């Protein structure tokens, strides 16, 4: 089911949490709302859910104007960062809850719950209580509970926000696989660009209550509309006045080594720079540099393999060149 939000406005006193926001969320896709804290992501999600009312604007789900409808009438599944499970119910009964209150036949409930336990990988834990689960398992239970009633849309507000980095990474892979299996139109709120790039079909970048850009992850990363989107989707540095991604900087011990292709169309200039620090970060190495002529500080990201070959040391003089600069698209 597709979702459209048209001209959404929401103010808290003088402050515009949503400032004339319009977005189309396509059927069956996973769309992330990505932006810094306070940019209006949760406000937009809650407006879609019907948990908050808009000052003005329209929410359309599956072609129907649901703006005046209650959350229950909107047919949505919702999962928050801190999921409130029923502590006195087992995992199985938590997942079955929505089906039981809808008075579904027992055999149907059992079959559906068995299927969902399997999908979220909690079959062996079905007799446990929520307190006996890890944070990641609890969030998977929350997702199963939300999916149990076959919602038209699934709304996730930082569902993995409270978990540590490794568990988050596992869960987002799992979420992606789950999405490929069930294909429910899903909207995920996150402030984590890695998470958004990893799981989304489309990303909407929000800033100060407005949508800056909507598109496929690669579009936003490679063709951002402005410096805000470029910087929010991944780190950027300024080199010769241009916005550059650190992995698009080539370093060599001679000017020629920094520019082996000698392609004149890529003339962004070779900079003489001093290495101020070399930091190994697992697969990659961050090389912090200071341009000799301007004193401008910047960082380049090279592979660990390249660093092993170059063996750069703090204090050395090297040559750096941007192999690609951010070109802002028009739309
Ligand atoms: N009930 C409220 N009363 C007053 N201001 C509010 C209320 N709810 C949200 N806001 C403000 O609206 C703005 C947008 O909030 P929102 O929760 O949508 O941001 P967010 O992008 O989801 O941020 P975060 O990632 O920190 O949750 C914030 O500046 C917030 O302080």
TrEMBL record:
Species per Swiss-Prot/TrEMBL record: Gordonia oryzae
Gene3D superfamilies: P-loop containing nucleotide triphosphate hydrolases (3.40.50.300)
GO terms of molecular function: ABC-type quaternary ammonium compound transporting activity; ABC-type sulfate transporter activity; ATP binding; ATP hydrolysis activity
Ranges for domain ABC transporter: 3-233
Residues making up the signal peptide according to the UniProt record: none
Keyword terms of this UniProt record: ATP-binding, Cell membrane, Hydrolase, Membrane, Nucleotide-binding, Sulfate transport, Translocase, Transport
The name this protein goes by in its record: ABC-type quaternary amine transporter
Protein's gene: cysA
GO CC annotation: ATP-binding cassette (ABC) transporter complex
SUPFAM superfamilies listed in its UniProt record: MOP-like, P-loop containing nucleoside triphosphate hydrolases
InterPro entries tied to this protein: AAA+_ATPase, ABC_SmlMolc_Importer, ABC_transporter-like_ATP-bd, ABC_transporter-like_CS, Mo/tungstate-bd_C_term_dom, P-loop_NTPase, Sulph_transpt1, TOBE-like
EC number(s) recorded for this UniProt protein: 7.6.2.9
């Amino acid at each position: 089911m597709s979702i459209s939000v048209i001209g959404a406005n929401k103010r808290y006193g003088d402050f515009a949490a949503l400032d004339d926001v319009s977005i189309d969320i396509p059927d069956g896709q996973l769309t992330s709302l990505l932006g810094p804290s306070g940019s209006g992501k949760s406000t937009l999600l809650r407006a879609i859910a019907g948990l908050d009312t808009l000052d003005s604007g329209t929410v359309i789900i599956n072609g129907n104007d649901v703006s005046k409808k209650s959350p229950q009438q909107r047919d949505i599944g919702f999962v928050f960062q801190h999921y409130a499970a029923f502590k006195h119910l087992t995992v199985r009964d938590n997942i079955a809850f929505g089906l039981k209150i809808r008075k579904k036949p027992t055999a149907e409930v059992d079959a559906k719950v068995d299927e969902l336990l399997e999908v979220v990988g909690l079959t062996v834990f079905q007799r446990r209580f929520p307190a006996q689960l890890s944070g990641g398992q609890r969030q998977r239970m929350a997702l199963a509970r939300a999916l149990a009633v076959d919602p038209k849309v699934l709304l996730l507000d930082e569902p993995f926000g409270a978990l540590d980095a490794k568990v988050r990474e596992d869960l987002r892979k799992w979420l992606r696989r789950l999405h490929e299996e069930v294909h429910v139109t899903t909207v995920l709120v996150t402030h984590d660009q890695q998470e958004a790039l990893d799981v989304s079909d489309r990303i909407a970048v929000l800033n100060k209550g407005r949508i800056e850009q909507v598109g496929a992850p690669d579009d936003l990363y490679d063709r951002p509309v402005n410096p805000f989107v470029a910087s929010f989707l991944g780190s950027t540095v300024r080199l010769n006045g241009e916005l550059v991604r650190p992995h698009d900087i080539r370093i060599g011990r001679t000017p020629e080594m920094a520019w082996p292709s000698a392609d004149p169309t890529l003339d962004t200039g070779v900079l003489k720079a001093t290495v101020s620090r070399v930091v190994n970060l697992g697969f990659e190495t961050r090389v912090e540099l200071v341009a000799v002529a301007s004193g401008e500080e910047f960082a380049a990201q090279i592979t660990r393999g390249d660093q092993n070959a170059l063996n750069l040391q703090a204090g050395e003089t090297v040559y750096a060149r941007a192999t690609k600069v951010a070109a802002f698209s028009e739309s």
